[in-house]
Design a protein that fits this description.
This protein is α+β, with helices and mostly antiparallel strands. It is built from three helices and five strands, in the order αβββααββ. It has a three-stranded antiparallel beta sheet. Strands 2-3 form a two-stranded antiparallel sheet. The radius of gyration is 15 Å and the shape is globular. About 5% of the residues have low confidence.
């Protein structure tokens, strides 16, 4: 378990420090789609391949996905967990009026947002 947290810390640091800065598009906004009752927008680690997915789901379902990734001991899946957590953390600052990069997706509060051009 200790190794998992060390790997998570390293991957979070790598993701935060190495990600290129994206420039927000002028005249952009978040188009927000609410999640169904009892669910909220959460980043989930992919089970196959590298990456994450944004979905309306429950904390319990995300916890199960994280546990499955941890139990798999797959470096790719552990990295996916770290990236999902860092994306969720980064999205805490998003509001519907925040400028954004066109086409980007994010958790806007408990809803899913997609960046679109204003107007």
């Amino acid at each position: 378990m200790g190794r998992f947290f060390v790997a998570l810390a390293l991957m979070l640091g790598f993701a935060v420090l190495s990600a290129p800065l994206a420039l927000a598009s002028p005249g952009s906004r978040w188009e927000v789609v609410p999640c169904a009752s009892g669910t909220k927008a959460l980043w989930l680690p992919r089970e196959v391949g590298a990456g994450t997915d944004l979905s309306c789901t429950t904390e319990e379902a995300r916890s199960a996905a994280v546990k499955a990734a941890r139990d798999s001991r797959s470096p790719t899946r552990l990295l996916n967990v770290a990236i999902a957590y860092s994306q969720q953390l980064a999205d805490k600052s998003i509001t519907p009026d925040s400028s954004c990069v066109l086409g980007a997706r994010g958790a806007v509060g408990e809803a899913i947002g997609t960046c679109v051009a204003s107007g």
